[in-house]
Write a structure and sequence with these properties.
With 284 residues, the chain is of the alpha+beta class. The chain has three domains: 1-34; 43-216, Sandwich (Immunoglobulin-like), CATH 2.60.40.10; 229-282, no CATH class. It is 33% helix and 28% strand. The protein contains five helices and 14 strands. Strands 9, 10, 12, 13 and 14 form a five-stranded antiparallel beta sheet that branches. A four-stranded antiparallel beta sheet has the order 1-2-3-4, with no helix packed on it. A hairpin with a 4-residue loop joins strand 7 (118-124) and strand 8 (129-135).
């Protein structure tokens, strides 16, 4: 069923027969109804479908920020979400089906020519409070696109619960730092942080900057180090024990050289005497 909006010459949306009507950028578009694929399912098609599914599920969590990070340009037909898909599809997915995963350090939630934050770092104040700092040594006459009032967007992402939260509030470039508290659901996890700037006056954004907040307890690393030390101790002990056992066994098996030489020389003399005696007896 198609719906006609705004009178006889309004925008048409919906399906009529084998045609699909949609409105984008105040323009009505018509396309054929897609046909269901009935061919063989190959490894390539499975890999492609899994990539699209993984990417769509991930980027859907950031739609409000993507709309800011990919501002509309003149004569631009693609939506902000489609631009984000195009930018991230070839960069952030690694592996082969079914072992696909996202490289969170390469995610792009914004794309523009605005200068980012320099010397960006995150200091942990206590268990769930952090201080995001950056350098304010920006020479405005060298970077005409920058502004002290550039708005900062800081997004935290929890890959376990698939949760994206903005924590920057109304922070601006001129603040040089701001404090934020980690949500209770993100405590003790590995959190991925994305930062970009937006200039409302000039309608430009910066590239996405990434930082990782690994808040997991170092129990696993400590256990690994203890296990490695224990294994090394066992190996060294076994080697020393083996050497000592070999010494004890060798001590009982070694025959004194003097005995060996005496035995060999006496045997040779007896053989020589026997040969000489047989030769004398055979003489006429």
């Amino acid at each position: 069923m198609a719906i006609l909006r705004g009178g006889l010459f309004g925008n048409l949306s919906g399906k009529i027969g084998g045609l699909v009507f949609s409105t984008r950028n105040n323009q009505t578009e018509v396309r054929e109804l897609p046909k269901k694929y009935e061919g063989p399912v190959t490894q390539t098609s499975l890999n492609l479908r899994a990539k699209w599914k993984l990417l769509m599920e991930f980027l859907m969590l950031f739609i409000p920020f993507i709309r800011i990070g990919y501002p509309k340009q003149p004569k631009q037909r693609m939506t902000a979400f489609n631009l984000a898909i195009s930018e991230n599809y070839r960069n952030i997915i690694k592996g082969e089906y079914p072992n696909l995963e996202i490289d969170y350090s390469k995610v792009s939630l914004s794309k523009g020519r605005l200068d980012g934050l320099s010397s960006l770092k995150t200091d942990q104040i206590d268990g769930q409070t952090f201080d995001l700092k950056w350098s304010s040594s920006v020479k405005w006459y060298q970077y005409p696109t920058t502004d002290a009032c550039d708005r900062i967007y800081c997004i935290l992402y929890d890959p376990i619960d698939k949760l994206a939260v903005e924590v920057s509030g109304d922070a601006m470039r001129s603040d040089t730092h701001f404090l934020f508290s980690l949500p209770d659901d993100m405590a003790g996890k590995k959190i991925h942080m994305y930062v970009f700037l937006h200039s409302a006056a000039k309608r430009v954004v910066s590239q996405t900057q990434y930082q990782c907040l690994d808040l997991r307890e170092p129990e696993s690393a400590e256990k690994f180090r203890n296990l490695k030390t224990c294994c090394n101790a066992i190996v060294c002990s076994a080697v020393e024990t083996k050497k000592e056992d070999l010494r004890n066994v060798t001590k009982h098996l070694v025959i004194p050289k003097a005995v060996v030489l005496k035995k060999k020389s006496g045997t040779i003399r007896k053989v020589v005497r026997g040969i000489r005696k047989s030769i004398r007896q055979k003489r006429p």
